[in-house]
Design goal:
By secondary structure, the chain is an alpha/beta fold. It has a single domain, classed as Maf protein, CATH 3.90.950. It contains five helices and seven strands, in the order E-H-E-H-E-H-E-E-E-E-H-H. Strands 2-1-3-4-5-6-7 form a seven-stranded mixed sheet. Helix 1 links the parallel strand 1 and strand 2. The longest helix is centred in the last third of the chain and has 18 residues. One of its GO terms (molecular function) is nucleotide binding. One of its GO terms (cellular component) is cytosol. This is dITP/XTP pyrophosphatase.
Length: about 210
């Protein structure tokens, strides 16, 4: 079986390919098969992930899995949410991971409530009009550190402090990060669904 990963984000693709390796199927980044990106006009992760999965399935003719993820900061009423990737542009910065972190630290300066949640929503479709999309959500509670720590990962990882570990995601080895992260949790849930609903019925020994 071949499955398209509906993302052009290199950090996401690296993590997802590693997390989906246990499936034993061919995982293909969408950029190898198509150009362009899906519209993401919605205010929820699940709607945007579904849009991306359908777009990739339509343009490749293959089953597709898409991720929509973001940072929901308690002090900001859950924002930036689905606009996480563009957070820094609100404050005049060019779009980049480093500028997103800088803007977040500036906006939280003097704020005592530094609680937040990282969310990853994965949606899988067998074809563009699949009436039964697979949906898996992973969430992890974090604290926003007061300064950057560590050099691994991507996005907001340098300031996402995992309280039980006392380290940011950027300080953790990849395998440890995947054990605790939002995307690791959603991927493990999606793996089980793909095995159950997409693979079992196609295996010769499936009962």
């Amino acid at each position: 079986m071949r499955i398209v990963l509906a993302s052009n984000n290199q950090g996401k693709l690296h993590e997802l390919k590693a997390l989906f390796a246990p499936l034993g199927v061919e995982i293909i980044p969408q950029r190898q098969l198509m150009q362009g990106e899906a519209p993401e006009p919605f205010c929820t992760f699940v709607e945007n992930a579904l849009s991306k999965a359908r777009f990739a399935a339509e343009h490749t003719g293959l089953p597709a899995i898409a991720d929509d993820a973001g940072l929901c900061v308690d002090a900001f009423g859950g924002e930036p949410g689905v606009q996480t990737a563009f957070y820094c542009t609100r404050f005049g910065y060019p779009k980049s991971d480093a500028n997103n972190v800088q803007a977040l630290l500036e906006q939280l300066q003097g704020e005592t409530n530094r609680q937040a949640c990282m969310v990853s929503t994965l949606v899988g479709v067998r074809h563009p009009h699949d009436p039964e999309p697979l949906i898996a959500v992973g969430k992890v509670r974090v604290q926003i550190a007061t300064e950057r720590r560590g050099h691994n990962g991507f996005g907001f990882d340098p300031v996402l402090l995992v309280p039980e570990l006392g380290q940011t995601f950027a300080e953790l080895p990849e395998q440890v990060k995947n054990q605790y992260s939002h995307r690791g949790r959603s991927s493990r849930a999606m793996l089980e669904q793909v095995r159950q609903y997409w693979l079992d019925g196609t295996r010769p020994d499936a009962g």
